[in-house]
């Protein structure tokens, strides 16, 4: 289904989630969008989606964030990227107190390369690195069925450990 989270209301988003076992927020405003769009998508849409999950009775929730959010206020971070990191941090802060079985996943720089199936997954803070979008998806699929990751914030880059093994090592 397709839903524009920038213009949708809580009830309509919740109706899409009715009956779901889990929800994953992986949207992002994308490179080249301005600070206002990062605020409405990377924070506002994430908060709306989490609210809708609660409203719909969805328990399991995985939110894709970003490595480096602690550097959002650093003068070395370009303004556009700082806006992205600040929005992701606000979204994380919004999610943590919610009545959801949440896991926050902070991937490194996303790349469109073929999946490797090999990752490094750990509690913050991982060294900078990249990760394929397909490997992020594979980790999310594993996290959804790993209750031992509930309430955890995890960082992800490509590495040397098979996806399932990396997730189960966190438990």
TrEMBL record:
Classification via Gene3D superfamilies: NAD(P)-binding Rossmann-like Domain (3.40.50.720)
Family annotation (InterPro entries): NAD(P)-bd_dom (IPR016040), NAD(P)-bd_dom_sf (IPR036291)
One Pfam family here: NAD_binding_10
Domain NAD(P)-binding: 3-147
Superkingdom field: Bacteria
Protein name per its UniProtKB record: NAD(P)H-binding
């Amino acid at each position: 289904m397709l839903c524009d989270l920038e213009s949708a209301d809580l009830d309509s988003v919740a109706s899409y989630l009715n009956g779901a076992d889990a929800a994953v927020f992986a949207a992002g405003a994308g490179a080249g969008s301005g600070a206002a769009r990062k605020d409405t998508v990377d924070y506002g849409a994430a908060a709306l989606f989490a609210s809708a999950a609660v409203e719909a009775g969805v328990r399991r929730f995985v939110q894709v964030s970003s490595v480096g959010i602690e550097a959002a206020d650093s003068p070395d971070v370009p303004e556009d990227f700082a806006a992205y990191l600040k929005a992701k941090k606000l979204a994380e802060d919004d999610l943590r107190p919610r009545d959801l079985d949440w896991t926050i996943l902070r991937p490194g720089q996303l790349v469109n390369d073929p999946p490797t199936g090999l990752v490094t997954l750990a509690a913050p803070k991982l060294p900078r690195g990249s990760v394929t979008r397909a490997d992020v998806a594979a980790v999310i699929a594993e996290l959804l069925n790993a209750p031992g990751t509930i309430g955890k914030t995890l960082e992800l880059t490509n590495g040397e450990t098979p996806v399932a093994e990396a997730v189960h090592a966190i438990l």
